[in-house]
Each structure stands twice: as C-alpha cells, then as structure tokens.
Amino acid sequence: MSVINQMLVDLESRRKVQLPDASLKLVRESHGTPSQQRRQLVPLLLTLVALLLAALAYTLWQQQPAAMATATPAAVAEPEPAISVTEAPPATLTAPVEAAPLATTPSSEVTAVAPATPPEPAPVEKAVVTPLSDNIETQATAKTVAPKQTVQEKRRRTESAATVVTRPRDAVGKVILPPNKSEQAEQHYRDGYQAIQRRNNSAAEKLWREALQLSAQHTAAREGLVALYLSQGRKVEARNLLREGHQLLPDNERFTLLYSRLQAEAGETSAAIETLQTALHSPSVTQDTLTLAAALHQQRNEFVESITYYQQALKQQPQNATGWMGLAISLEGNGEADRALNAYKEALQRGGLSSGSKAYVLSRVNALE
Length: 369
Description:
2 strands; mainly alpha
C-alpha cells in the first residue's frame, strides 16, 4: 500500500509541474510562433501600402485639371497671331481689307462680307507665345523678311474665311439649286407675257430681250419680240431677230416664213426664195410656205414653179380661194387660158375672197370666156 501511495503522490506532483507547460503550449498555439506571426503581418502591410498608393493617386487626379488649366494658355497657342503681327506691322495697315461682293443670283444666296476694318494687331511683345515647333519660328522669321508675299496670303485667307454662302433648303432639307439659264429665260418670257397683258410694252421688250440673252434658242421669246416690233412698225429690228432665229433654228418653219415675207416686202425676192428652200424640201412643209413660194416665183414670172407650188398647196387646203386665184394667174401667165378660166371659177365658188380680189377674178372670167 505504501508503494502504491507513493506512486500516486509522484504522479500527482508531476501533473502539477506539467500544467504550466500545457497552458504555455496552449498560449503559444493560440498566438503562433514568431515566424508565423511575421507571415500574418505581410498581408496587413501590403493592404496598407495599397491604400497609401490609392490615396496618392486620387490626390494627383484632383490636382491634374488645375494644372492643365494653368498650362493651357502657354501650350495651346496658335502661331498665327505671331505670324500676322510680324508680317503686317501696325504702321503698314493704312487701308482696310474689304472682301469683293458676290454676284447675287435668283436663289437669294446669303453672302456675308468681310468687316471693313481688320482687327487691330497686338504688340509684338505680347504676341510672342511658346511655339509648337521650331518650324513656326523659322516661318515667322522668313515672313518678317518678305512682308509683301505674306500680306497677299493674309488677304486670301481673310476673304475666304469672311465669305459665307448659304443655300436655301426646302421643307425636307434638300438644297434648292439656283435656276439654270434656260429656266431663267422661261421665267423672263412669262413675266414679259404678263407685261403685254398689262399693256406695258417696254417692260415686255426688256424681259424678252433678257430671255434671249440667257437662251438664244428660246423660240417663244423671239416670236413675241418679233410680233411686238412688227406691231410698232420696227421691221428692221424684226428682220434681224428673224435672221438670227433662222440661222440658229433652220428647221423652225415659222421663223423661215416670217423672215422670207419680210425679205419679199423689202424687194429681195431671190433672197426670199433662197430662205424658203430648206422648208420646201421638208416632208412636213405647210400650205402657207408653199403658197408663199408660189407667189414669189410668180413675181419673177417663173410660172412653171409657181403652178407646181400652188397645186401642192391646194392639195393640203382645197377650200383656199386665194390659192385658186393665184393658180389661175400663173396658168394664164403660162398661156393656159382654159385651165386658168376653170381656176378662176373655182376661186369664186370657194368664197372668202376680198372685194378687190373678187372684182379682179370676175373681170378675168369675163375676159377669158
């Protein structure tokens, strides 16, 4: 028993001695070893460094706009003011630079003209700025040596920048183009026609002449102007217009017919017949042209040609009493009395002759019977 008790006493004493070691071990395990404690501090230090860097970056970002605003006047300086001052000193600018006015068109283009007085140049000392490149300083020096050439360049730049042309647009937004010459001529002709209706002959004449200047082949304007001149007895001016029209439009039979009649009235029978040749050989020749050609040949005692043209005209319009009378005269002149008598009688039967023509036909019928 004593031995057992002694062993129990020893064990109890050992437990009391080992308890501090166990508690110390628990403390050490809870706090870790020194190397483990250093490893745990590394993430904390990295996090702290990241926060410091973020704070520094935020501070720099807030200070950047102010720095840029302060540096902008010196960095973004256009070289042009320095060049313009060196090329044109205040003493040489004695006359204002004016832009030439643009010719207005019917489309009512809006033109902005350059100001009469150019902006006053700044002194040289104030205009010197930090150059963007060495080239700008070199160019400024070169322009100071040759101011005449740079003044011309400045004027071209001023005129091109000051002249602003805006074209009108329709409701959809499409640009309305100005009318071309043909459209302007047509508008002048219509305005002239309205002026004739208002009995304003001088305005109509001016408008129709302007229409022909814009488009010489505008037939309606030429015909209207010829009719106006003939109504006023201005046959020379009418002949000139018809001659131009016949040369420009040889296939226009109305110009040819009127021009030939005026030539015949002036005693130019051969020229009148020559004017009709193009129209006479046309497949669409009219009865009026054939009748005029027959009458002109009749005046020259060329009765065969006259009879031919009268017959062609009567095929187109057999009720024309004047044509039958002309044919009868040519037949009688050609020695064909019987055919002439029949033609005179046809003229009387068709009717429509004037009193003088009817009296002449009756006299020829009585003479030939």
